[in-house]
Design goal:
By secondary structure, the protein is of the alpha/beta class. The protein has a six-stranded mixed beta sheet. The chain has a two-stranded antiparallel sheet with strand order 7-8.
């Protein structure tokens, strides 16, 4: 069990056109820090904590090719001679079986999207400053990392697909979900009080209490890191450790998630 000084970090990498966002929560889900920047500044921020669980929204490694192997495909109920799903990691395949849309990590690492490659660099740099792989069923270092997928996190917490994250309603919904999980966030409903006829007509809307979708993704990642460390029975892990697992903040996933 982590000590009272342990913090829980969520990192949301991007393809480089936008800054990397991060959020830090304490053991009582109070906001310790939230910021954005390039890789070096984010590493400096997370490197300041001696005890931390860091959840990263990116695949932790290239595709290990498990679902391209006949004996592994049989294990997951797939035809051994077929190639369907061979371009997916096991964790990605399993989330899709629950209806949750997720990227796929291609077998050819050179064909991976830019944000994926940045994620691999981030994990490697985290290892360089003392972070190690979080294992739910074994000893782990004082600083550890896990892989998360914010869309999957919000989906399982809500019980169905949320609104699109770049819409007003999607941001409101996600912030309300976090508040229901007792994460320290502003009251999203205060945003609605700012929508007046005058402000709409004059273009003077300023949503001071509403977080961006990047901040919300970082926060749900940090929340999931907290659950994985402090209440593991309330989490589910998908995938194969040989190529990377993803943790989601629910004890049992629905068979299929829909709108």
């Amino acid at each position: 069990m982590p000590d009272s000084d342990t913090v829980y970090i969520g990192i949301d990498p991007t393809a480089g056109r936008r800054p990397i966002h991060y959020a830090v929560l304490d053991g009582r889900l109070r906001l310790v820090a939230m910021g954005q920047g390039d890789l070096e500044s984010v590493l400096a921020a997370v490197g300041a904590y001696e005890s931390a669980v860091c959840a990263v929204d990116a695949p932790q490694s290239p595709n290990g090719g498990l679902l391209a192997r006949p004996e592994v495909r049989v294990r997951y109920g797939l035809r051994p001679e077929a190639t369907t799903w061979s371009q997916f990691k096991v964790c990605e395949y399993q989330l899709r079986q629950h209806g949750i849309g997720i990227y796929n990590t291609p077998l050819d690492a050179a064909a991976a999207k830019r944000w994926m490659r940045l994620g691999w660099v981030l994990y490697e740099r985290l290892r360089g400053i003392g972070y190690g792989l979080f294992r739910p069923d074994g000893a782990r270092p004082p600083r550890s990392f896990v892989e998360v997928h914010p869309h999957a996190c919000f989906t399982v917490l809500l019980g169905h697909f949320p609104y699109r994250k770049n819409t007003l309603e999607g941001r409101l919904q996600r912030q309300l979900i976090l508040a229901d999980c007792r994460v320290e966030v502003p009251d999203a409903l205060e945003t609605l009080e700012e929508i007046t006829r005058h402000r709409l007509l004059t273009g003077a809307l300023e949503f001071h209490s509403l977080l961006t979708h990047d901040q919300l993704d970082a926060l749900v990642a940090a929340y999931t890191a907290n659950l994985a460390a402090t209440q593991p029975a309330r989490t589910t892990w998908v995938g194969d450790e040989a190529e990377g697992r993803i943790v989601v903040p629910v004890d049992k996933m629905k068979e299929k998630y829909t709108r």
